Amino acid sequence: MTAALAEQQRPVHVQAASLELRVAENAAEIEAAQALRYRVFYEELNAQPTPEMSALRRDFDSFDPYCDHLIIIDRAKGEGAAGIIATYRLMRREQASRRGQFYSIDEYDISALVNYRGGILELGRSCVDPAYRTKAAMNLMWKGIADYILHYNIGVLFGCASFPGTDPEEHKMALSYLYHRHLAPAEYRARALPGRYVSMNMMPIEQIDEKRAFVSLPPLIKGYLRLGGFVGDGAVVDPQFGTVDVSVVVVHDLITDKYVKHYREHSAGKTDQSSSAA
Predict the structure, then answer these.
(1) Residues 40, 133: Cα–Cα separation, whole Å
(2) What integer pLDDT is reported at residue 253 of this predicted model?
(3) End-to-end distance of the chain based on CA atoms, in angstroms?
């Protein structure tokens, strides 16, 4: 395969200064992404690894072989696996069919999303090296996701996003704000499984300082909301990762005009967008 042909077949390829964003293309890059996940989730955020993960110092599970792994490489740091500084795991409907299920199904009833007739995409395992947690890096990652959903004609993207800690009461204002202002329409609404369901309706809307509530949201959740995203019904406590999770969903046809404008300006600006999706 020629280099030009390989480039045409990439669903995502974005370059900005020394940063390159694309899908991992070999086992070494996937393992480097898993090693970054381990450093962030288990060493920095104190999640509980399995003995196998501890031995290899990589975060991995049975879903990884079926997913695409979106990566950002800082070529000033190293080429390929040596330069990976951010990653996001992507699973389309056909990939989930080969695995047998989506990852989220262990926390949420996602039948409303699975019943959507078009392309659907689950996102997860998002992490960025601490030295690269800048707006520029996050914008680049969102740009790559936008290219990916256009390339594969994705209509709905969804996943879980987390609050730190395992006590929902600590986040009652933010969770209540999400419930009152950003609950997904019924046809796109996931619901926490009965045995894990924690109500997000913990405060009446008139008692919520909405500006303060939004500011308190984790950056990933803010990113989804800025796209015009929604949340599902019910939070879930994840004891392994030490988090309170919420289901998030973005419907492509409902993406905010502000984001579309930003995306178009970004495409025409400093980045070199080389994927077949425009």
Answers:
(1) 12
(2) 82
(3) 23
Specify the residue for token string 């879980």.
Answer: 160
Distance CA 233, CA 61 (A): 26
Distance CA 261, CA 161 (A): 25
CA distance 9 to 6: 5
198 secondary structure, DSSP code: B
pLDDT at residue 272 in the model: 30
**3-state SS assignment for residue 37:** helix
Amino acid at 64: D
- Block means of pLDDT (10 residues each) for the chain, 278 residues, are 54 92 97 98 94 97 97 95 97 97 96 94 95 88 91 95 96 98 96 97 97 94 91 96 95 70 45 27
CA-CA distance, 160 to 103, in Å (whole number)?
10
Q: Where are the beta strands (DSSP E) in 13-153?
A: 13-16, 19-23, 68-74, 84-92, 108-109, 119-128
Element (H, E) at 224: helix 219-226
> May I ask the CATH class of domain 3-273?
alpha beta
Q: Can you give the pTM of this predicted structure?
A: 0.87
* Alpha carbon distance 208, 9 (integer Å): 48
Residues paired with 238 in a beta bridge: 243
> Domain spans of the chain?
3-273
Q: Considering just the CA atoms, what is the radius of gyration of the chain in Å?
A: 18
**Interatomic CA distance for residues 19 and 143, integer angstroms:** 13
How long is the chain? 278
What residues have CB less than 8 Å from 80, skipping those under 6 apart? 26, 28, 29, 32, 73
Alpha carbon distances (Å) from 125 to 41, 47, 160: 9, 13, 9
